[in-house]
Structures
1.
Amino acid sequence: MTLTLKDQLDLTAIRKQFPVLDQSVNGNPLIYFDNAATTQKPLAVISEISRYYTEDNANIHRGIHTLAERATAAYENTRKSIAQFINANESEEIIFTKGTTDSINLVAHSLGGSLLKPGDEVLISCMEHHSNIVPWQIICEKTKAVLKIIPINDKGELIFEEFLNLLSERTKIVSMVHISNTLGTINPVKKVIAAAHKWGAKVLIDGAQATPHNKIDVKSLNCDFYAFSGHKMYGPTGVGVLYGKRSLLEAIPPYQGGGEMIKEVSFTQTTYNEIPYKFEAGTPNIAGVTGLNKAIEFVQSIGLDQISHHENALLLRATTQLSEIEGFQPMGTASEKASVISFNIEGVHPFDLGVLLDAKGIAIRTGHHCTQPLMDRFKVEGTARASFAIYNTFEEVDQFVSALSNLIKKLR
């Protein structure tokens, strides 16, 4: 049964589903605040991966024996679950990839490679992850299209008026992060999509950080493509999802060639398979896909409203307490924000903070977080970043802030 916001979260029961949390690191109980990089995996996901390899290990779609049929059924059932999870029109609009990066590369090369002409423009924002920068640089260089950057303000928010000013008949593709992995900023993607569509542009949304925290409705958003990763939402690494509208998926060429993505092959001609298989060349990460289904079931068992409510409470508590530390310098103070805090402490290198907190068993991320242009925008080399998930507790936040405060006193 899904909890309501009036119910008390049983964090003890939730945490028991994550065996990795029940350990000591450097003599201290583990506090894991690196969830924006990857989330931990519940037993249901771990058990499903083991179950697949111990019971059903067989290639999919190509065999008539029992193991192949069971593996195929589990794989395709996940596709149906994901379509329902993001409210796609049909499961055929769901393509399995290696992750968000792979999904964006697919769109950049298949859509961008066939659509873009010299002088055309692709718009991305200043807060993009490298995965949503480099593929567009590559395809723009190949097609002689122009990559343009939507600026942000000092709070880390998209300057929407500047975005509108950049749009024109030359704009063919807009690709934007839904939630920034560094700033936590939640972008107004529905408004972005509507504005871009008025100029006939296609829109890809990078949802890697959004799917673990917020309900996604691709029909309501009316995005052309939506990409996300399993490992950011309690699922396995090496598996991701690309949603695309049927009309576009049927129109664009495949990204890779090989087995499964074909109907017929001769040495003179190849005809491609129907969607989604046209974009799924080779043997996929079958165990990862079936494990992703269990991750979705885990998220749904708690409810995204409940997850968001808890994480926002953690964010508020941490932000309030951190703000009391002398020299605390947050990066990303948007009014619409997810459970990510990037910060620096005046006079202390973020790498030193990361190393010293790890000695206390506290895992945070330090560096540029694969957003170097964003760091350049704020004139910093990097930040420390704490990011929260459903299994984190208020007590962990308190211990983190206390440890950080004590370290800073010693460093100064």
2.
Amino acid sequence: MSHFPKKRCSIAVLTLAVPLAFAQTNSPPVKPEIKGASESTTLVEYKSTFTNYRSFVDQPTVSWREANDTVAKTGGWRAYAKESQQPEPEQSPASSNGAKQ
């Protein structure tokens, strides 16, 4: 049995491992300098995604006849089609992103 495959494998491992060992550095990362900025320039405000979260609330169930009658009173599918064709009411940027005024 030949030891040639083992030698090739060990040479390949050393060929890949040695450069990686020398590529590691012990110096701390360099902080980039920003012109005109000081340490207290920017204040970040944290707002949780869950601030305006509304949990699920069970709605009362109605009979199918009652649901159909309600849809018929509102105009059926035609009323929903008209509603979908109406332009969206414009909102101010402050109210659309949930910012407090």
3.
Amino acid sequence: MNTAATTRLDIEKIRAQFPVLNQLVNGKPLVYLDNAATNQKPKRVIDALTSYYEKDNANIHRGIHTLAERATKAYEQTRHAMQQFIHAKHVEEIIFTRGVTESINLVTASYGRAFLKAGDEVIISGLEHHSNIVPWQMICEEKKAILKVIPVTDIGEIDLEAYYKLLSAKTKIVAVNHASNSLGTINPIKEIIDAAHNVGAVILIDGAQASAHLPIDVQELDCDFYCISSHKMYGPTGTGILYGKKDLLEKMPPYMGGGEMIKEVTFAKTTYNDLPYKFEAGTPNIADVVALNEAIQFINELGKENIAAHENELLSYTVKKLSAIPHVKLVGTAKEKVSVQSFIIEGIHHFDIGQMLDTRGIAVRTGHHCTQPLMDHFGIEGTVRASFSVYNTKDEVDQLVEGVERIVNFMK
């Protein structure tokens, strides 16, 4: 990324768009460094939620009155915006879900249940979030398929040579993340996708940590499925998307039954709706989907390249500062990363570090970050994780570093 791009961003002007940042926590100005868990919402997203409920609240698709038509139009505008955001070929390839977890479960329950057989193999990596582990364990157990895991190197990268050796004619599905939520590692997903296709496997990408930071072109990547959560790209919680290639989605049975996903229902037989509605049973999370469009536009207006350049500058600054503190050990030092840095302080529990930083108004995440197997790989129980967004500043990094130095000096 071109770090010169950061000159185009007025960070103070950006910060002013996030009401939550303007508050005291434990008597100190909030320093929010927990963006890998969820990032904050600009006022335009909040206003879109409020406006929907104040002016347009109605159920969608089936109503002919004005409110229903306005709500339906706004809802479907977000689908078109997301299609363009990830460069999907067809708008009907965008399926609204509650987020990445439901998107992965949809694929395991629908595609996995329909097409996996006993003895087939599914490959995931040692970098995965529990949401990209547990659903595959469940479907493999049900179908008597075999789950294999790509090992991780000491710096937190996928071992590609080991991955290539795991692939075979038995491999039917590969599922990996675009970027690690625990370590920030950016995976070489194009190579991973191409290798999976070479043995006839389909591949799912968990894009939870990529959507606000990295360029995504699902056609260029040639991935079969791609999953995104709204709340990790400045949008509301409780919504997201599953992208799937149209031919695959058409072959897959419905995930849930109910209203909207049907064409005709009789007690003798039900016929299912066309894409994307076949996978969108019941009244959806309308307001949050409508507001997600504002988050997409927020990112588009700033430019992902500019966002990434600013965040990468913060990450490099953080790595340099934390590395200089005695007893601090960085966990995850891959060459290519999104703006996430995990660390431990030797002899001090990560929960204690998090609590002490919180007394200074600094919000970080502590624990295993829903990646317990990855923590086991490093022989640790958990880490402190600082993760950055476009509204964070070097001054906030300095406050984090000062807080860590005080903890080390006090405890050691």
